[in-house]
Each structure stands twice: as C-alpha cells, then as structure tokens.
Specification:
By secondary structure, the chain is an alpha/beta fold. It has one domain: 3-Layer(aba) Sandwich (Rossmann fold). Strands 2-1-3-4-5 form a 5-stranded parallel β-sheet, with helices on both faces. It is globular and about 30 Å long.
C-alpha cells in the first residue's frame, strides 16, 4: 500500500485529506508543521507528499526545498495544495521542486487524479 504524507496545520483540512486518501486506497500519514513534515518524510519514506503551502513557521515552499536538499527525501514527489493557484504559483512550485500544485478548493476526483498521475 502506498503511503501519502499529508502536511497541513489545519485539523479540518487534514481530516478531509485523510478521508480522500484512505477512500482511494492509500495509507495516510500526517504532519502538522514543517519540521514534523521533514522528520516524517525521512522516517516514514512516503511515496508522495500532499503539502499545504500556507502554514505558520515553515511554508510549503521551504519544506519542499528541505526535502529536495536531502538525499533521503529528494526522490519523493510533492503535490502542493494551495488557495494560491495562478500560473506564477504553479511555476514557482515547480521551480522549488514540487511535482505540481492543486488549487483549493479542489474536488475529490481532481485530487485523486493528480495523485494517481504523480505516483505513476
């Protein structure tokens, strides 16, 4: 079973993502902060990271840069989930090392489709 690391500082958003990931047949792992996300990525070796961009402390882009800089985590694809989803945001996400960006609000089908595409 593929593991998906969900990183968000909103408990409600984490619950929603856990439900979507679980229903799609993947195993959710959660982190509520940037430091916890980096630590969990190293320890749990997820197949993909779903990452909120706007968080207190380390933002999503900083987390991506930390993951990309570490040989143990640089191979893990990252999907940023953000209310900021203009063309410039998509470009900046890719420049930081993310696979793609999904805009909030998203549909369950849209998110599952993006995860499937990135995992394959």
């Amino acid at each position: 079973m593929k593991k998906i690391l969900i990183v968000d500082d909103s408990a409600a958003d984490v619950e929603e993502l856990i439900a979507i990931v679980s229903e799609a047949g993947w195993m959710p792992i959660c982190a509520m902060s940037g430091a916890e996300a980096v630590s969990r990525a190293k320890a749990d070796k997820p197949h993909l990271v779903l990452l909120d961009m706007i968080m207190g402390g380390m933002d999503g882009y900083e987390i991506v840069r930390h993951l990309q800089a570490d040989m143990a985590t640089k191979h893990i694809p990252v999907v940023i989930v953000s209310p900021k989803c203009q063309k410039a945001d998509h470009l900046w996400a890719r420049m930081q090392g993310a696979s793609t960006l999904v805009g909030k609000p998203y549909s369950r089908d849209e998110l599952v489709g993006v995860i499937q595409t990135v995992l394959n």
